[in-house]
Amino acid sequence: KGAMNDPTRAYLIWEANPRPAGIPFNLTPFVLTFNHIDDKLRPWIAPTDSRLRPDQRAMEDGEYDFAATEKNRLEEAQRARRRVRESKGEEFVPAWFSKETCEITGESYWKFNGKYWQQREKAG
After folding, report:
1. Is the CB of residue 32 less than 8 Å from the CB of residue 19?
2. With contact defined as beta carbons under 8 Å apart, do 108 and 101 qualify?
């Protein structure tokens, strides 16, 4: 049969599990869990959490026409809010993040400011 270090032999060392049928976009079962919200987590997530977006839910449920319509509605609402802000000369300021500079790389990044939890406490 030959030794394991025989360069003339091939050995199967790993094989992917077969993918379940009916999953869109050739996604893996692992990827499908990314937007899942555990019932224990639901009370703690922000209402703006992207996992709650109706267009994402519809896309995952295979309702592609509704997903596209809903995504367009959300984007148009964002554009309208931006136009109002710009007409007033206001700049958008994120509520839960502040722009910081990495001391090592000098690159900008968005850092969570912790204010979300303070606001939740006030809201009860």
Report:
1. no
2. yes
Q: Which residues contact 47 (CB under 8 A, 6 or more apart)?
A: none
| pLDDT, tens digit, 9 for 90 and up, residues 7-60 | 888 888 899 888 878 887 777 888 878 888 889 988 888 888 888 999 988 988
CA-based nearest residue to 41, from 29, 30, 52: 52
Expressed in angstroms, the distance from the first to the final Cα of the chain is 70
What residues pair up with 100 in beta bridges, in sequence order? Answer: 109
d(CA 57, CA 63): 9
3-class DSSP assignment, residue 25: helix
Contacts of 111 (CB under 8 A, 6+ apart): 97, 98, 99, 100
Separation in Å, CA 47 to CA 10, 57, 66, 103? 53, 14, 21, 33
pLDDT tens for each residue of 80-99:
999 999 999 999 999 999 99
Contacts of 60 (CB under 8 A, 6+ apart): 32, 35
